[in-house]
Amino acid sequence: MKVSQRLDSIAMSGIRKMFDMASPDSINLGLGEPDLSPPRKAIDGMTLAAENGLNKYGPTAGIPELREAVAKKYSAYWSGLKGKNVMITPSGSSALLEVAMTIIDPGDNILVPSPGFVIYGPHAKLAGGTFTEYRMSGPGFQPDIDDIQSKIGKNTTAIVINNPSNPTGSVLDEETHKALLDIAQDKDLMIVADEVYDSFIYEGKHNSFLPYLDRSIVVGGFSKMMAVTGWRMGFLMAGDDMMDALIKMQYHLCASPNMPAMYGALAAMPDIESYLNDARAIFRRRRDLIVRRINEIEGMHIEPPKGAFYAFPEYDLDIKSADLAMELIKNGLVCTPGSAFGSYGEGHLRFSYAADEEKISKGMDILASVYTKLRKERR
Fold it and tell me: Which domains does the chain have, with CATH numbers?
């Protein structure tokens, strides 16, 4: 059977590879899946909607009430945001694919962060385009402005920005935010801003691209916000003209999002900040634990990530991150090699601290034991 060259040219995600190789009793710090319970109102709202017969097709862009609720929450970043600027999507990942299919023509090139989330480049290829990695540099993993400028070519059409970042947990600073906007304006480029972790910032503030929808599309999601990854619920925000095109794209992808889940998310939105305050406190404690434990291991180092729920330490052994991750899997700890996130991710590992503190502690015990043993063997 024939498989398209576009799909055949894309490797399976390194995150999923590690997940699939793990034994059931492994300590899994590989997936960014919050272990928290969703808001009770979300579960009750979805259940009630299903019981009341709201199981049919809905509006392609999502129910108006939820579009308005998202606009109300995110108007904190831009007071001009309206419900018409919001489209509910079947996951943040599908939103990003829809954006790629909407703005990329064959031959177009987009710039993607490295280390950066694994789907940006493949989405460009599925849309018929190409991608070029730009470096996330320094201890704060900020987009390297000089590197970005050097890689803009005649076919470059967009820059993908992930803020806060998966896998690094970095948060975009104001100076870099302004520099990226200046580049987009000067070079007539679109900014695709993946901001699905905006709810999880522990120091500093979120510098969103929402005030600049004339030049950006912003992607968000309920999966992390409400700990409902299995519901596959996301959203995107765009200017009026671009929104029309994105709704057309979504129609051809799915017709409409999950109806009961939309009502579940809607029910939870009025009290979501209280829920998130509690969630941030939990993740901050876990972040502090995993950072402390990693920095206690000779040869490993990490600066405290300011956002998301990932630790991305560097290490000093001359060993590929995929090989190091494999050694850890053999010893019962699942993580993700830095190389899965692009060429500039080599020399790092990614650990998710979306797991509880007991699992994090056990995982760090394994990491310390395996890494210390490897250092002794390689001296």
Answer: 5-37+273-377 (3.90.1150.10), 40-271 (3.40.640.10)
